[in-house]
């Protein structure tokens, strides 16, 4: 059953990946990075770049939890299931590195080998080399503002950068891009592209972060979007009109505090050990936990 579901999800994901107009596919990580170079964005968006580069999105591959999860997926699924191979790591890379659509199957296989090396190799030098190579891959400006900007609605237009607001000027002409608005980018459906399954996968077969958000948040009358919580400052005091690109998550302690209300009451007591015939000191704990987030926790 599990291989069938994986195959169904993979087929759906592949069908949603826009076909690249590039005749040549990237054969190396450096070639793929060059295709989606974002250094030209830094000049005008230095603040967003600084927020992004240390965020979970800026480290969507080399986060230790991601690498360990992928290692397990490779070892226990891709290497064990006869119908799959390491080239099928695209099921993960499609969201963590959307640019992978312009990579050769051999490059995907190489990335899988680097993941194994980064997690398992006994040589720290080799592990560090693998992590350094993999750190070149991430969700970057073009991942969201181009590749995923139109969501499941269709392919992005070639040479267009998308933003969440109306555009009255042409601020990106100097670097070879037109600029258009994508209303989707300010909606939770934009995030659902990677935090949910494709529309072709039955809802009940794919409980995700997004289904939790819909069922446990929207259907109870709340209206906040993913962006309202994860791309606004924690104290909600800054009203600049734009989004931050830190992408707040559980690794930010102040943000985590805002998501959970935890009350703990403790009192000392003792209980009788009937076998030893003595009192043993103990503590009685009463824990009251309230989830203020827009979805179940933990999740991803």
Helix content: 25-40%
Query: How many DSSP-defined strands?
Result: 4
Strand order in the sheet with the most strands: 1-2
SSE pattern: HHHHHHHHHEEHHHHEE
Mean pLDDT: 88
Word description of this protein:
By secondary structure, the chain is an alpha+beta fold. The chain has a domain of 144 residues. The chain is 39% helix and 12% strand. The protein contains 13 helices and 4 strands. The strands form 2 sheets. The chain has a two-stranded parallel sheet with strand order 1-2. A two-stranded antiparallel sheet has the order 3-4. The protein is globular.
Compact description:
This protein is of the alpha+beta class.
